[in-house]
Every structure is written in C-alpha cells, then in structure tokens.
Amino acid sequence: MRVLPFAVPGVVAALGAGILLFAGRELWYALRIYRGDPTAIADAVNDPGPVELQGVARPENGTVRSPFSDSECVICEWEVEREYASSGMGGTHWETEVDGLMGGPFALDDGTARCRVEPAGSDRQLQPQRVSVPAGTELPDRLVSFAADHPEVETRPTGTGAPRAAHDYRFVERRLDAGETCFVYGYGHYDSGVGRGAGWVNLVVNGDGARRFLIADTRARGVAWELVKTGLGGVVVALVVLFGAAVAYAILA
Question: In the chain, which end has fewer C-beta atoms inside a 10 angstrom radius, N or C?
Fold first, then answer.
C-alpha cells in the first residue's frame, strides 16, 4: 500500500496551508490598522465594541519595577534564555529557562480622556531589551538578587565578587513604560466602576468579545508594519513548505 507515503506530503501541505492562513490573518489586521484611524477615548465610551485607541500609558494603581533594568513601567514581560548546543547540527540555539509577566490594569490617556486597559490575555508588541552574560562572566549587580531568587539561573560563587554565570544567558525584558506611547486594539466596554476621577470616562478595554487584543509601545503605523513583516515572513515559509509538499508528492506519484 502506498497510502502511508502519500500521507506525508498531505500532512506537510496541511501545515503549509495553516501557516498561510496565519500569515493572511496578520496581513489583514495590518491593512485594517493601517487604513483605520484611532478613535478618541472621549468618543469611544459612547460606542462600545471593537476599538482602536492611541495615547500615552499612565499608571492607574502604581507602577512595577522591571527585574533586569529596574525601570518604572506599567507592564513588563521578561524571560531568561540559555544557549544550548544543537544535537547533530553543530550549532547552538536558545531556550527559555524561566519567564514572567508583571503589571496590571493601566490608564490610557489620549488628551481627550482616560480609560482603563486590562492587559490580561493580550498579544503584546513591546520592544525587547537584552542583557547578555557569557558563561564565566560576573553577573551585573542588578541581576545578582534575581539569580538568587531563581534557581533556573545557574551561577558559580567567586568568593569575594559577584557570582559568575555557569552558562551563556540572555536576560530579556519587554516593557511598556509609564509615559510611553501606546496603541491598543481590543474591545471597549462601558463600566460604571471606572471613570470617577478627573479626565476619566466609564470605558474599559480588554479582550472580552475581541477577535484580537493587541497592545503595543508604538503608534498605529508601527503596529501595522510589524504585522506586515510577520505576515510576509509567514507567506514565504508557507510557500516553501507547500513547494516541498508538491515535490514530495511528484516523487511519490
């Protein structure tokens, strides 16, 4: 029976089709964001539903301090990556050893009003900042206490100085700083529990009811460009996969 060999190109083709669908979705969102205009927060409260907002991120109930740079921010996602040798390939690759997310609801201020943004479940496009620490190198002072609290980061004592990294590590954090430009694509809900202070309106933006919930530390055009790059990259990968499936099918036919 030749059914099983023919199943392999079919699986590969299905994978390629899935990648192509994902890429198409990213390009569709990119076009939608590029062609749209962010809604004024003062107007969005009167028309709950899918919404694009752009303004400045402000703390609502205080800020958090990022673990690696000790920066004041409203959101911080962080991870520690370790370099591993790739078996049978002669190269190396990076794997996440530990990660986390800090922060909570924050205010978005566009000059017309303020609303609350609840970031849980969002797709965050935040610029990464990396600190690389090669094996055998002393950890920077700001990372010593972090390593002590996270056993995933293996170190070796030096006696008098800071501990040394036992492996090659990258400490990565992606922040939305207080006072930074912020773009939000989500779903706006009327909520009488917010908006009691000066400049506030009764609007909460989150992912409930939204097909896509996106928070970025740039303006709408920058968000659209990042989505275009992701989408075009996906198209290239999908075409390569589909071409491989077609070649495999032709060989087996």
Answer: N
In this structure, are 196 and 226 located in the same domain? no
Task: Give 137-184 pLDDT, tens digit per residue.
Answer: 999 988 999 999 999 999 998 777 789 999 999 999 999 999 999 999
Asked if residue 15 and residue 133 are part of one domain, the reply reads no
Q: Which residues constitute the domain of residue 135?
A: 40-217
**Global pTM value:** 0.78
9-18, 34-43, 120-129: segment of lowest average pLDDT:
9-18
57-107: per-residue pLDDT in tens? 999 989 999 999 999 999 999 999 999 988 766 788 999 999 999 999 999
Q: Is the domain of 85 the same as that of 22?
A: no
My answer on whether 52 and 142 are in the same domain is yes
Is residue 77 located within the same domain as residue 199? yes
For residues 53 and 156, membership in a common domain is answered with yes
